[in-house]
Design a protein that fits this description.
Distance between the termini of chain A: 73 Å
Largest interface: A-B, 130 and 130 residues
Number of strands of chain A: 15
Strand order of the largest sheet of chain A: 1-12-11-10-13-14
Strand content of chain A: 15-25%
Number of helices of chain A: 16
Structural class of chain A: alpha/beta
Oligomer: homodimer
């Protein structure tokens, strides 16, 4: 890993360290656009054709209904793990349930704000080398709590055209009605426009590769009338550590992020007399036992250690970088966490491994990457709600507000706006 | 206005009535893209050049600092109106202030959710034929309450290169630091990338014409690293009325929406024996006195009356249409409002004119149009916050969650994730 000393860096150099590698979406527009058009016009057939082309499988049916958990066979140990994770995620997201708000801004002017679930949501679960039931838990539990009327899942089928029982189990647990056995841009397009067998949804959520991300970007700004969770880039971790941090814990955390892929972003900000060598030795030692070490090592080569002189300097850099995951493993970690301005999710103290939050602490693991933590929040219960405002004026209320409204309407040359008040009085 | 009877319509016909006129953004991509590139590379000069080209004015300086309200001269009556509107908007948005949340999901597993303001926001206020101080109030008051560190305004200058004192007054009131004297795609690009004199912001908010909207769409999905409030289309109103509604009120409300522009969307859903003729006569009578009647009349020609037999049917259609503004002017309006699923803002009862909410009731008038009320909320205090999750596990907490995390990490073939737990225990 490269090393930098904060005190010797110029502002442009700090900005450069905060920059993520450019993703060239324009390059895949040309691939994704025709897929979207095909799915839009040919529906199910196009989705099946692309699935055959890209995933080497053509399921007998594009969709499958979700069976009861009692009919789905998974290992007891796995089911127990899923159930504990489900319970924690449910508890944390249930506590976010929005309360309706009513404020009488002036006598007779009652303003309120109510929350209504988005009616139909599409949850995308990537396939590839491994199954990702945790992604479905993170997307599905809040959708279920919010009370979305229809939860549709899209995920690439396995080579035999079926869906992994672990995914189906969670699908059943979160109350999903349908699984679309497709991945990639074709799955996103099917959810956005609807086909004969896939219902058109209002919002699409979930991570994916560059084709999925590009399809989401294009469809978000199209006549498909669909919204998305957030822009997505490779996963990231920034660790703030000092001499009190166990080097083996720090190394394990950096590796857990790095194993996601060669493009994972890993940053270690070390305070004061921290022993970078001890951490590097631990990385070497631990990575030798990891099956995905090849990926992790490439990711770490693109990453860096930054030496800072104080916790405040560490946090200043972290806030500038705006990491998806932030581990604070130093003295007074709790106190330092109050200074966080930009981050997706924060892990405080020596025992808060990122993987605890990835799976089961209760927080959501669908988080803003790529520096978008400066302006986006991770998925939460709110992600599945619209907040609608209402106002009810009494005749008295309208009278007391009338001259304000008519004066402002005049200032903006909107006479019919004024007329709607004066005609009532 | 065209008339339809709900009972005679097929489902596809109802869907067609819910569809908004297509907006061809692709057509302006070709105009907007080079503007964005120019501003990105040439900065201030490009912004000034485009302002000269499109707005026929080249201000001596691209930006101006915001003076104290005491130095800004506006009419007393206008100032009083602004102050009352400010107070109501402040009160309603202040009540939305997010509370931090802490949940112990399991013993020793503390999860929390905290809110942090987005640091730098850019508020766009369109120019054109009239000034729009109300837009700045609606965007700026919640930014001020949230505590955004920097509030930058962009708005086209007047022909003499200055900013209207009404806009400057509100800018001062909401604590903005700078006004960029530019509009259009060039202003949005300057806020997104930053220039020598314009700070780069994290989020851009505010309505605009097709060039502004297209620039926002393109920049949201670019390496500019900026987010936007929501997609924007022409303004809309759906009125639900029955025989208890005063036809002159209904007509005035329809006209107040229609005067926004020829592309305004206006829908009247009439229940039972409602007298459509009386409302049409009132429209003709009132519009004859309106300076913007020409615009309103074209808008109304594209709009329609829909006859339904019951309040429930009216609400079913409204929820399908998902209007930006919904006026419920019928018996038991309050009760019917509990059935709203999709709308931006709702106006309940005979005295709740839309223009009251446009200016001063306290609710926000920056609302989802074009059917996006199905999945987006209007601007609220939340628009200016990120919600960051945190977790702090004790050693005991990690122990109790460990087998869940390691089992799920195994199921997803992520060994380093498992290792980050086992190495700690």
């Amino acid at each position: 890993m490269k090393r930098y000393d904060y005190s010797t860096l110029t502002n442009p150099q700090v900005n450069k360290l905060c920059r993520r590698p450019a993703i060239d979406f324009e390059a895949v527009f040309g691939i994704v656009k025709p897929i979207i058009e095909d799915v839009r016009h040919k529906g199910d057939d196009a989705v099946l054709d692309y699935t055959e082309q890209f995933d080497d499988v053509r399921p007998a049916s594009l969709t499958s209904h979700v069976r009861a958990t009692s009919e789905i066979s998974i290992q007891d140990k796995v089911r127990d793990a899923f159930e504990m994770a489900y319970a924690n995620i449910f508890k944390f997201h249930q506590a976010q349930y929005p309360k309706d708000l009513t404020v009488e801004t002036m006598p007779g002017v009652l303003c309120s704000r109510v929350s209504r679930p988005i009616q139909k949501v599409g949850l995308y679960v990537p396939g590839g080398t491994a199954i990702l039931p945790s992604t479905l838990l993170m997307l599905g539990v809040p959708a279920q709590i919010a009370g979305c009327e229809e939860i549709v899942i899209a995920t690439p089928p396995r080579v035999d055209g079926t869906i992994a029982p672990e995914i189906e189990y969670i699908a059943s647990r979160i109350g999903a009605s349908l699984i679309v056995k497709a991945g990639g841009a074709q799955a996103i397009a099917a959810l956005a426009y609807g086909t004969n067998s896939v219902p058109k949804v209002d919002k699409i959520l979930g991570p994916g590769n560059q084709f999925v991300t590009t399809a989401k970007m294009l469809l978000q700004n199209s006549d498909a009338m669909v919204s998305m969770d957030m822009p997505a880039g490779p996963s990231e971790l920034l660790v703030i550590a000092d001499t009190t941090a166990n080097p083996s814990f720090v190394a394990a955390d950096l590796l857990s992020q790095a194993e996601h892929g060669t493009d994972s972003q890993v940053v270690l900000v070390g305070i004061g007399d921290i022993d970078f060598e001890a951490i590097e030795q631990q990385i070497q030692k631990q990575s030798s036992k990891l099956p995905r070490a090849d990926k992790a090592i490439i990711a770490l080569e693109n990453s860096f250690f930054l030496h800072v002189s104080s916790p405040e300097e560490a946090m200043a850099f972290s806030n500038k970088y705006a990491p998806e995951h932030l581990i604070i493993n130093c003295e007074d970690a709790k106190q330092l966490s109050t200074k966080v301005k930009n981050a997706g999710s924060v892990f405080i103290g020596p025992w808060s491994a990122e993987s605890a939050g990835d799976y089961a602490s209760g927080t959501n693991h669908t988080l803003p990457t790529y520096g978008y933590a400066r302006m986006y929040s991770g998925v939460s219960l709110d992600t599945y709600f619209k907040h609608i405002t209402m106002q009810e004026l009494s005749q008295e209320g309208l009278r007391s507000i009338a001259s304000t409204v008519t004066t402002m309407a005049e200032a903006e040359s909107l006479d019919a706006h004024k007329n709607a008040i004066t005609i009532r009085l």
